[in-house]
Structure formats: C-alpha cells, structure tokens
Amino acid sequence: MWLVDKLRLCRTYSLSLEPLAQNGEQWGRLQPISDRRPAWARPQVFFLFTTSFPSPEAYSDIIEKFEHQFILQHLTSIYMVIMDRYCMRLMRYDRAGSILTPWKDYTRDPTVLPDLFWRLSVLTDEQLGLDPTAIPILPGSSEDVFMDDLARKRVDTDISWREGSTIPDIIDSPDPASAPQWSYARSWFGDSIYPAQDPMAIPDFAHDHPRWKLLVPSGADVPPREFLVGVPIAFRCSEKRDVKVDERNTRVFVAYDCTARQLVCLKDTWRADKEDTYQAEREGTVLEKLNGAGVPFVPTLICDADLPGQETRTQRFWPIGDIHDCAKDPVQRAHYRLATKELCMHLCEVKRSRTLVSIIGDCVTAHASAAELVNILHADISYDNIMICPTVDSTTNPAKPTVKWRGMLIDWEFPRPVPTPENLLAVARITSRRSWKYASVEYMQAEQRALQTQDELESFFYVLLDGAVRHLPSNLESVREFVDAFFATTPSQNYPHGWSVSPWKLDALDQCRILRAPARDGSQLQFYWHSRRGGDEDGAEPIDHAFNALLQEYLSWCHGVRRVHCDSKLWHREYLPPAEPNPAIKKLDVGELAAKLDDHGAVLALFQSALKAWPEYLVDVAPPAVVKPEPREDGEAFWRAMALQGGVGEGTAPAATESEVLARDARMQMLKISAEERRERAVETRKEDAAKEKMREAGAASVKPPPRKTKPRVNLPVRSSRRIRGEPATDPDEPPSKRRRRR
C-alpha cells in the first residue's frame, strides 16, 4: 500500500488490501477515492502479491477471483497486476483467455510503476471492463424503489403455479408493480434482489446486492429494450471449479420487461461465432424460425442481440505474446443477450409419473415439429433442458380456466440439421458443449457419424429415466448412487469425444433390463405409486404398473437399435451382478423394435396411448384394485386395464401381429409371477398373525414369530425447496425451486 500512499503514484485512487492468505498470497484492489458507488457498481483493478506465480495453485486462485467478478458484475474484461518480489506484470482477462505482459523489474526501472498507475487512472469505466449496456441501479433511486415494490407478494392478483389451480379474474392494474404475475415468478424476482436470503447464492452474493438495468439493442432507429434484474437464478458458482473455465459464462435472470410490464426470462452469455467448425446461428434466430413455423412447447422469443462492440480480444494476440492456459487457438466470442416470454420451473417439482410422462411427451412433440417444419434437431436433450411451464388451460371449462403444466424444450443453442444423403458429410459432429451422459451410446461410440433422430429419442429415454429416479418413489436404496453409476461418464481415450459409457447403461441396452445400480443382487428397478405403509392385506406392493410398462417398452426400442448396430449380439459383462436377461427380448424382432425410433411417430403414439388410459389418482393415494382385461375387441377398456396391470398399447388395432402376441404373453407371464409372489406374502402374513395370536394366548413373550421376507425399500423423493433443503415445504404457497445451478 505504501507504493500508492507514500510515493503518491496515484492520488485519486487508493489500494485496499485483503487479509494475508495461508499460502502467503495477498489480494488488493485499486479503487477511486471520490467514487461513492457501491463496490459492485465500480470497475475493479486487482493486485496479487505472491511468490509462486505461475504455479497451478496461484492461477486457480486467479481464475476463481475473476469468475466471481464476472458473475457479480457485467463485464467485458478484467485487469490485474501481479507483484512477485521485485518484478511485476499486467494481466488482461476476458472470456477467450488471458494475456500477460513480460516481467518488469520495477526496482531497476523507476518509471514502470508511475507509468502503470497513471495509465490505469485515466481509463474510463468501459475501458476498465464495465459493460456499458448494464446500468447499475443505485440505492434510493426511483427504479430501486420500484423493484422493492414489485417483489412484494400479492395473493389476490397473482396466479398460483400449482397444477389444477383456478385462475382468478385478471384485472389490469394501473400500477405496473401490481400487474398480475405468476406467483413463483414474483417470488423468484424478490429472491434475486435480496440474494442474502438465498443459500444457493452463497458465496458469490453473500455480501453484495447488485441491481441492474440491462439493455438489449433493437435496431438502428429503435431504442433498446430495457430489463430490470437482480442476481442470476442460474449460473456456475465460482467456487470448486477446475482451472479451465466455462468461456460462455451463461447466466439466467428473472427480468422485468419495462415494455410488456411482465416478468420474463433473460439469458446472458458469450457465444462463439463458430462451434466445432459448424457455423452456429444465434439462439434467437433459431427460436424465431421455430415460433414462425408454429412449433409448440418451445420458448417464445421477445428480443435478442449481440451487444455492439463487445467481442473478446485475446484471440487477436495469438500466437504472438504470452497467453496463459491456451492449449488451442482461442475462439472469438461475442456478448449476447436473449429474452423469452416463458419463465419455467425445474423438473424437481414433478410428483406423479403421469405428469412426468406428459411433460416429456410435450418436449418430444416439440422436437418432432422442429424436425419436420424447420429441419433441425435439438442436439442437447438433457435433464436440465426439459422444463415445466405453467399455462392457462380453458379447454375443460372456459368459464373457470385452470393451471396446466406443459413441457418446454429450452436451450436451442447448438442445433444440427436433420441428416440427409445430401448433407450427411457436411453436418459436423458435436465434440463439446452437450450433456454427454444423456447422449446415445451409438453416437458416443461412432467416430464419424452425424446426429440422427434415433439418437435424440434415446436421449429422451435417459431423461425420462433420470427424472423418474430423482422424483418418483422406487425400490432404490440410494438415488444418488444409482444416478452416479448409471449415468457415469469418465475421461477415456477409447471414445471419439473422450468420454466413456457407463457399464450399467450398456447392460441396460444389451439385456433390456435396468438393474438397481450399484446394488450387486441382480434385482431390477421398479417404481411405485406411493411409499409402502405396511403393505396391503395380500402383501402386495403399490407398484406403478403403467409407468413401469411404458419405461420397459421404450427401453426395448432402444435395445433394438443397440442390437442392430452390434450385429444382434447379447453381451454379458463379468463385473456386473448376475441376472437373467429379460425373457421377452428373445421372442421379439429386434429389427421391428429398432424401426420404432426411426422417427417420432411411435414414441408419440406410445406416450399418447399411455396418457389416455393412465389412472387419474395422486401419488399418495393407494392404487385401485387390478381390473381383469376385457377382450381386445373392446378397445379402450382393454388398454386401460393393461395400463393398470403393466401393458401399454398404441390403439385399438383389429388384429395383433405375431410379435405383439408374443410380447403380450410375456407380459402376462410376468403378471402371473407377480400374483404368485403376492399370494406367498399373504400366506406369510397370515402365519405371522397366527403366531402372534398364540403368543398372546399362551403369554409366552419369548416365543418369536417366524421370519418374514424383507420387502424392498421405497425411496421417496424429497421436495427440493430453495429455502429448506431436505424437508417438505411448510407453506403450501411456497414457490417452486428455481432452475438448478451448474457447478
């Protein structure tokens, strides 16, 4: 600090130092003395006093500090001065990488420090890295007061987010802050401007409450569109990250649209002009095409733009100069903003298997329409890209509309064209920027292969399985252990993209079964309607036959694709627990199964027929008695009974094919086995009750009843609340959890 204060190198600035760290490093900030703005609204020039640069530990600390600032503020770049004993160097960091000047010994050249501080003191906020399209909203301003008023809860006018809720009479209010909003959107907006109340925001927003007015340019002669935001609801935390950072720095905000007077979704990211040698369009351009073609269940575009003059500069100095941690050529990136009308909820709010199937079915419909009408594939089907969108439904009763949850397929950043014989070689493979644990096995193992429809449909199956495991009752001992085992992707040089496939996933496709990974008893995964509360009188478990049957039939189609591409071989892995393959797969034609995923028709028919016959009771209510199937000619009655007992059909076809008959016989055989098990459990229960009665009559407390078979544990999902982790919400009006932050 004496360099600045005693030597008066920069009279209008002060150097504030943080406490000395355990590793001997010390951080400092150069701040203007007369600037009364909060720290989050001012440009920051960092100083690092160290003796270990450029060690990996020192560079990791620098990256963590920079990433925190990019999350807290709206920046284009950051400057930092590194002081190592008697030498110093200057670093400039943006989303493409970092540039460093050569080391200078300031003890031998006395002009180095005065020249450095003079240059830093004359730079403007924009030159020091502040985004000119992000205007800080200072405490006490009119916009600051309006945001406080907007965040207040309004029970009478806001619309409940819960499915089935009645929509109140919407009356347009002259007060913009009192205009009707979705209740969860207003609650999320309040959390974003008071981030200290949100434990998920710690530590990036533990002490700062930034508020901004973000501008999105609309054209040369049109004023920019204005949005009021707080802290992001989805971002990548600066802690516990690798040295290699996420260059895009994607953040999602609950934003107030000053033009439409509604709370909307605003996405801020640094996009690449080229991604994997494929010329990628802006996401807003893709959404504009989808909206124009009438594709349902995709976000509605409000506006989007590349912010003028905000491109990375690191790539200009490559390969000249000292650029740290650049294994390959830096990619030029542009600062990009996108606003959409829908503000969606995460899949963790799903409580019923029927709701989960309906939401994913909507996203399959969106994917099919995009492929047919716009000729593109999403290319990143994943758990985080399928969301819940509450909508107003007036089809049942126009006089009393209700809330209906629909699926929403988001993040159309990296679409790929539908492959044809003409463009098959021109369509580039995706080698990064996708969720590989949901990618199809064939796509991950093939070195030169364009993305196809069957790959995307297999990804939908993995999302359906992942969502069910996370949020529906099942016989798993640990949900986390199953997800970590089944969806594991580890670095491997044996795969073209560098990631391996989980052996549990390969076994599920090869044997057409899903084991309770990582259990070693060979038992298969099952889902229930609700937790077992002592069992029924006959000892039966509350098995969700409809969902289990749908999942099994969908898996058989993915199994058919796997068998066709692997020369119809069945593989057995010695390191997996012993278990017999599904007996039904030996009787089915794998070619017919694989053909189901050639297009979206079979999957859509499977979902629609299942939803049509699905029982309409809640998770925490015991299922009705099993209904004996009527003859096939009765149509809907047959399929409704099969949905209750484990079968799923596609319609009321007049005659069944040979493969359908064999599959139906296999299902009925499984039902018979289940019935025998239930009868055995009922007999054991009666024996146990008789033994207890004898104990009471004889008064012999030492007599023990005969042992009873242990029933599989039912794992109940716990509501993922933003305020109370691991406990159910005490307030029925508590808003749903926001989209999960990526770490």
Automatic annotation (TrEMBL):
Region called Disordered, residue ranges: 674-743
One Pfam match: Pkinase_fungal
Lineage: superkingdom: Eukaryota
Classification via InterPro entries: Kinase-like_dom_sf, Pkinase_fungal
Residue span(s) of domain Fungal-type protein kinase: 266-465
Biased composition (Basic and acidic residues): 674-697
Entry protein name: Fungal-type protein kinase domain-containing protein
Annotated source species: Dichomitus squalens
Organism lineage: Eukaryota, Fungi, Dikarya, Basidiomycota, Agaricomycotina
